């Protein structure tokens, strides 16, 4: 865990995250009843702050204590310093779960179970594009396969799904998958 914490702390220092909310969350926030939210791998809190300002009580989870130190103190924000390889999502707790730019397949079934009836998941992360854009090889365990995100959340009512080419924070072309889905 310490090695992961140091790696993520270094990444947040070297590549500061934007402060504006993720576009997909901002676009689909009105699909969600205000209540309890979970921001998985929250980083410096751009989505966490947006949700707290909209009236949500937010559990903001990240392994980087540096990133969590940038999450503003707010009565509605519960900062959780945790290794997401070991963290477990409480069943039937959340009205909204947000996961952007992160993939831990162990948590995806827990995310479905963690939603209350009527709860919404907003999930957006990278798709395997090895060779397409000449990126350095990364750990393929952290990249989705084509249509994997859609198949992962089968059983939920899909509000929106897209796979597209976009640009990351370093200005590099990447492939992204985006999903918004609701639990019946």
Short description:
This protein has helices spanning 2-14, 23-28, 46-53, 65-70, 105-114, 148-152; strands at residues 36-40, 57-62, 77-81, 94-100, 115-126, 157-167, 173-182. With 184 residues, it is α/β, with parallel strands linked by helices.
What does this molecule look like?
By secondary structure, this protein is of the alpha/beta class. It has a single domain, classed as Vaccinia Virus protein VP39 (Rossmann fold), CATH 3.40.50. Helix content is 26%, strand content 30%. The chain contains 6 helices and 7 strands, in the order ααβαβαββαβαββ. Strands 3-2-1-4-5-7-6 form a 7-stranded mixed β-sheet. The termini are far apart.
Topology:
Blueprint: H1 2-14, H2 23-28, E1 36-40, H3 46-53, E2 57-62, H4 65-70, E3 77-81, E4 94-100, H5 105-114, E5 115-126, H6 148-152, E6 157-167, E7 173-182
Parallel strand pairs: 1-2, 1-4, 2-3, 4-5
Antiparallel strand pairs: 5-7, 6-7
CATH class: Alpha Beta
Q: Compute the separation of the termini in Å.
A: 36 Å
- Rg result: 16 Å
**Average pLDDT figure:** 90
Side by side, the strands of the main sheet go 3-2-1-4-5-7-6
Number of strands: 7
| CATH H-tier superfamily | Vaccinia Virus protein VP39
Which labels suit this protein?
Rossmann fold; seven-stranded mixed beta sheet; alpha/beta; 184 residues
